[in-house]
Amino acid sequence: MKLTRYPEQIALLPYIGKWLTLASLVAVLSGTASALFLFALDFATNWREAHRWIIWFLPLAGFVVGWIYLKVGSSVEAGNNLLIDEIHDPKKVVPLRMAPLVLIGTVVSHWFGASVGREGTAVQMGGTLADQLTHIFRLRHAERRIVLMAGISAGFASVFGTPLAGAIFGLEVLAIGRLRYDAIFPCMVAAIVADQVGMAWGVHHTHYAISSIAPVTFWSVAAVLAAGIVFGLVGMAFAKSTHAASAFMKRYIPYAPLRPMLGGAAVALAVWWLGTRYIGLGIPVIVEAFQQPLAPWDFLGKFIFTVGSLGSGFKGGEVTPLFYIGATLGNAMAPLLHLPFALLAGLGFVAVFAGAANTPLASTIMAIELFGPEIGPYAALACVVAYLFSGHNGIYRAQRVGLLKHRLPPVARDRLKD
Predict the structure, then answer these.
(1) Residue 403 burial (10 A CB sphere; 0-12, 13-18, 19+)
(2) d(CA 21, CA 19)
(3) Residue 254, Cα to own-chain centre: how many angstroms?
(4) Residue 135 to residues 80, 92, 118: CA-CA distances in angstroms?
(5) Same topology for domains 8-200 and 218-401, yes or no?
(6) For every one of its 418 residues, what pLDDT tens digit does the chain have, with 9 covering 90 and above?
(7) Are 48 and 42 in contact, with CB atoms under 8 Å apart?
(8) 176 strand-pairing partners
(9) Which of 62, 149, 295, 414 minimizes the number of CB atoms within 10 Å of its CB?
């Protein structure tokens, strides 16, 4: 049926022009914010490494950030989950204060030595800044949903230097088992342009080298399948542990600023005992995982430090710690599965994230962007298996179940709905 007197492709041009403009604006805002954030993060990390005594002030820093959020940030404390909820059920524009609050909170967390990531901050800044266009252009609910998704994609892409993965992440993270194709063009444009904006500001991303990829054989496929199961279970354990720690702290410590204060004290004492290997982003250790055998308990150390930091209320993200956990776990399993250290580290890097965030497609594409196309078949297998074995929960509470991962017994389906 012909809907207009013009060919469909001609009628599409205004749509392309509109979303090219809006998505590019989102990308410029998000890419610039991410560049500022990454520069501040580098400064904070380098300063902390040069003055390691600063870790003893982590409890005080946690109290201050918690107090600020209590006084002026209670409406935006949900972070990524607030953005996802607003996409599912649009209610009101995300307050602009979310962007500076999460930026300052995350930089302070890293400066004083908490074990947190950076994805959450970039995504929240991207989504918040994008949503301000709702007022300027008087966007309808359907258009606002797409702008928010473009902001998420732009933030993810610009902080990791993975534009295609960032675009798919914004489409995939909202609901398990479903993609929002109505936003695919804005998300692609926003992610690609935001990545270019970050590089124009001088942002440089870490390079992870995988020197050789094992040939595809029966054993290598079986080994990657086994590794994928472990990666998925660890991703599920991380998500559940973080949520449980947060619920425990909220239940037994009603006054919010005391939670990161006590969590910071625990982290500081642990650093005094174990050293600084498990705090901050941990990029040097991730790089080591691609180069040489590491202690088999490194993944567990980062797991515990990150759960303690995020669960007690420090600001940041989960994704880079998940990269650390996955890369070091893969490194530990490599001798057992008779596969190269770098290959298993790379697969763990993306697959634990795929399981914890329920984003197997974005994670697979990220592997190809970071490590090269040769890893594609193995990455796809590891990420999909990790996704299946991580259950129907994840690091984002607002993420909905669009389609079950596999057929469940009636009792299990009812429990999942509840």
Answers:
(1) exposed
(2) 5
(3) 28
(4) 21, 10, 28
(5) yes
(6) 455 566 778 878 999 999 999 999 999 999 999 999 999 999 999 999 999 999 999 999 999 999 999 999 999 999 999 999 999 999 899 999 999 999 999 999 999 999 999 999 999 999 999 999 998 999 999 999 999 999 999 999 999 999 999 999 999 999 999 998 999 999 999 999 999 999 999 999 999 989 889 999 999 999 999 999 999 999 999 999 999 999 999 999 999 999 999 999 999 999 999 999 999 999 999 999 999 999 999 999 999 999 999 999 999 999 999 999 999 999 999 999 999 999 999 999 999 999 999 999 999 999 999 999 999 999 999 999 999 999 998 999 999 999 999 876 655 555 555 5
(7) no
(8) 401
(9) 414
User: Shortest CA distance to 349 belongs to which of 218, 214, 210?
Assistant: 210
Residue 246 burial (10 A CB sphere; 0-12, 13-18, 19+): middle
In CATH terms, the superfamily for domain 218-401 is: Clc chloride channel (1.10.3080.10)
Residue with tokens 């982590």: 58
Superfamily of 8-200 according to CATH: Clc chloride channel (1.10.3080.10)
What is the 3-state secondary structure of the chain?
CCCCCCCHHHHHHHHHHHHHHHHHHHHHHHHHHHHHHHHHHHHHHHHHHHCHHHHHHHHHHHHHHHHHHHHHCHHHCCCHHHHHHHHHCCCCCCCCCHHHHHHHHHHHHHHHCCCCCCHHHHHHHHHHHHHCHHHHHCCCHHHHHHHHHHHHHHHHHHHHCCHHHHHHHHHHCCEECCCCHHHHHHHHHHHHHHHHHHHHCCCCCCCCCCCCCCCCCHHHHHHHHHHHHHHHHHHHHHHHHHHHHHHHHHHHCCCCCHHHHHHHHHHHHHHHHHCCCCCCCCHHHHHHHCCCCCCCCHHHHHHHHHHHHHHCCCCCCCHHHHHHHHHHHHHHHHHHHCCCHHHHHHHHHHHHHHHHHCCHHHHHHHHHHHHCHHHHHHHHHHHHHHHHHCCCCCCCCCCEECCCCCCCCHHHHHHHHC
The domain locations on the chain are 8-200, 218-401
